[in-house]
Fold this protein.
Amino acid sequence: NKNLSPWSHYAPNGRFWQYCAAAKPFVSQWPAVFQVFLCGTPVSNALNLLVEGLKLLPGVGQKSATRMAFHLLQHDRAGAQQLAQALEEACSSVQHCQRCYTFTEDAVCNTCLDSERDASLLCVVETPSDQAALERTRAFRGFYFVLMGKISPLDGVSPQDIGTQALLQRACDGQVQEVIIATNFTAEGELSAHVL
């Protein structure tokens, strides 16, 4: 029967799963593990909120989010609390650098405060993660400007939305002699580079 649970072929004649499928409307009083096993998602409101929150992470779907939620609650409650505290602390203390717009806990990031860097070089990247990746190579010793996005007409993101005016002011401050456009090799990244 196509309306039965997807695991019905694992039991002889599917009889056990017929009973389970019939019982699905009444599983709200069952232990959470059986609720997930039969219905696919947690019935508990708190669990649902946790799963939906984990699904916000890139590449995480319903199954992965549910698995992570149960792992944290069943095997690593201390880790779950540490993660929650770290997220709360980051959301309350991390802000954008007033000069390059990367992430920092101070008004101006350590990179922009580094007097040993070459002020004549300015590298333009899309996101703080792109800047961090370049920094790990230790190959660039100039300063950065983080666009915090890329031009995307389909998503309604215009040049004004990614800080082009602030970039123009930074590039014309009298110190910058060379601007390096290091956007990603995507259609939107190439469009952003072309417009800049």
Notes: Confidence is low (pLDDT under 50) at residues 7-12, 27-31. The radius of gyration is 25 Å. The chain is about 45% helix and 10% strand.
